[in-house]
Amino acid sequence: MKFTFGIVTAGTTNLPAIYSSIIRQSIDDVEIIVVGGSDPALPVKHIPFDETVKKGWISRKKNLITQNAKHENIVFMHDYFMLDDDWYQGFQLFGNNWDVCMN
Q: Running along the chain, 103 residues long, what does each successive block of 10 average in pLDDT?
């Protein structure tokens, strides 16, 4: 399966740990998009977001992720969640025949 992970943030310092939790999944084709604050050291697609327009405008950030995602499987994440090390292994058991999935 191919996944786009979209992280909505206003500039947390947790991004390196979140990034590592995604990379540890060993997914063959993964894209990571960060909307809002970013860490320039991380190899992610960064979409700047002006928080002065509407602070914490999460729905707009998620729409930006969807518009820029290259994969149809999109995982929306807030900047305070990390994946368990066996997340992808469990997801493979679930399969790829779904429209909306929440876990």
A: 93 88 96 89 92 84 97 94 94 84 76
**Residue recorded with tokens 């305070």:** 80
- Per residue, the 3-state secondary structure of the chain, as one string, reads CEEEEEEECCCCCCHHHHHHHHHCCCCCEEEEEEECCCCCCCCCEEECCCCCCCCCCHHHHHHHHHHHCCCCEEEEEECCCCCCCCHHHHHHHHCCCCCCCCC
Q: How many CB atoms lie within 10 A of CB 9?
A: 21
Partners of 31 in beta bridges: 4
pTM of the complete model beyond 0.85:
yes
Residues 6+ away with beta carbon under 8 Å from 5: 22, 30, 31, 32, 33, 74, 75, 77
